[in-house]
Amino acid sequence: MSDDPTRAAREDDRVPLDPPSAAESVSAALGNAARRAGLDPAKHTSTGAAVWSAMGGVRGILESVLPSLAFVVLFTVTIDPETRQGNLWVSLGVSVGLAVVFTLARLIAKSPPSAAIGGLLATAGAAVLSLVTGRGQDNFVLGFFTNGAYGTAFLVSALIGWPLIGLAAGYLLGEGTRWRGDRRKRRAYTWLSIAWAALFAARLAVQLPLYFAGDVTALGTLKIVMGLPLFAPMLAVTWLVVRALHPRRES
């Protein structure tokens, strides 16, 4: 055994560190995504400020609502009584055009364009699908897959004992995955994740019948109503529960 402490230190330095576990990697990814979305406990002390930041303020709300609203209104007012179909080129063109304007505005203002670019890609992809099929209701198909994927992820994570809400909150609050050892936190995060899964499932349960019925106006209207108006209260409840589980002196 060597008596040279510096040699021992050098040997220790050569020992590779254990790679992060899959749970820690997922936790970090979710936490960073939440922080980029505006949910940062270090910056926001009030629930209202956190929710408003996550929605992107006035600009974020307009980017989220206006393209869909424009499509629904223009499609509805241009419906042909015989075919019962609106003018796809006009309604989709204005919808995509608004998304382009929002993206350019962010680029010009040198503000983070990721949300607007994501919205633009989703809007353009949905428009292409709808134009290919010639059916207005197909403008909402991508949203069904998105809701299904999110809902499944939240539900499965809760069922296997690694709720996504806990993974994100653990990273944001510097707790890692230690919350799994606290029965109260684990139960709360599990039920919150199930609640989010229920939200996405409710959207599908309400909107899919309208899609198969071909009722574009009702489908588009409910998509907007079940968007931010439901997202904001759910986010507020989640924030309040997480903050209650982590008193300020602890976090």
Automatic annotation (TrEMBL):
<dbReference type="InterPro" id="IPR016566">
    <property type="entry name" value="UCP010219"/>
</dbReference>
<dbReference type="Pfam" id="PF11361">
    <property type="entry name" value="DUF3159"/>
</dbReference>
<feature type="compositionally biased region" description="Basic and acidic residues">
    <location>
        <begin position="1"/>
        <end position="16"/>
    </location>
</feature>
<keyword id="KW-0812">Transmembrane</keyword>
<keyword id="KW-0472">Membrane</keyword>
<feature type="transmembrane region" description="Helical">
    <location>
        <begin position="115"/>
        <end position="133"/>
    </location>
</feature>
<keyword id="KW-1133">Transmembrane helix</keyword>
<feature type="transmembrane region" description="Helical">
    <location>
        <begin position="224"/>
        <end position="242"/>
    </location>
</feature>
<protein>
    <recommendedName>
        <fullName>DUF3159 domain-containing protein</fullName>
    </recommendedName>
</protein>
<feature type="transmembrane region" description="Helical">
    <location>
        <begin position="60"/>
        <end position="77"/>
    </location>
</feature>
<feature type="transmembrane region" description="Helical">
    <location>
        <begin position="89"/>
        <end position="108"/>
    </location>
</feature>
<feature type="transmembrane region" description="Helical">
    <location>
        <begin position="194"/>
        <end position="212"/>
    </location>
</feature>
<feature type="transmembrane region" description="Helical">
    <location>
        <begin position="153"/>
        <end position="173"/>
    </location>
</feature>
<feature type="region of interest" description="Disordered">
    <location>
        <begin position="1"/>
        <end position="22"/>
    </location>
</feature>
